Amino acid sequence: MSCLFLSNVLFANTATPSNKSRFIPLLKTKLGNYKVVSASSSLCVDSQLSLINPVYPDAGFKLGSQIVFESLHNGTRTTKKPDFCFVTSSFKYKSDGVDNSLRMSRCVDPVNEKTIRQSIEFASPTTVKYTLNDPQVHCTFEKQAD
Known about the structure:
By secondary structure, the protein is α+β, with helices and mostly antiparallel strands. The protein has one domain: Lipocalin. It contains 2 helices and 10 strands, in the order ααββββββββββ. The chain has helices at residues 2-13, 19-30; strands spanning 32-39, 47-51, 60-63, 67-70, 76-80, 86-94, 97-105, 114-122, 127-133, 136-143. The chain has a 10-stranded antiparallel sheet with strand order 4-3-2-1-10-9-8-7-6-5. Strand 8 (114-122) and strand 9 (127-133) form a beta hairpin. It is globular and about 45 Å long. The termini are far apart.
């Protein structure tokens, strides 16, 4: 019985990496230049997948200048954007990408109140798919040789 208790205590104190901790190393293997192979929007342009701040990967990443996943975090986070809205952000990290939900609420202008969902999927070692729900956007990118 004491061995079982000791193993439970040891297991409880063992820090397992968070999903974000596993996602960032995966993301780093996908960085580089990408060419659009299919697009439903002008957001889909040949782009570079890069970290916003290479020294601080938690700052997020971008695919070109229009597709941005900022401030990577675990769980849900709400911040007040002055003269705009409260923005509630959540990330769902997966083995092949990430889903991001942004909910704007208590906005200065109620027309800005909405929820936006975007995702990046690493569909293959060289293929990245991006989707956005509002407006509807679907892009597929192919990694270019360095």
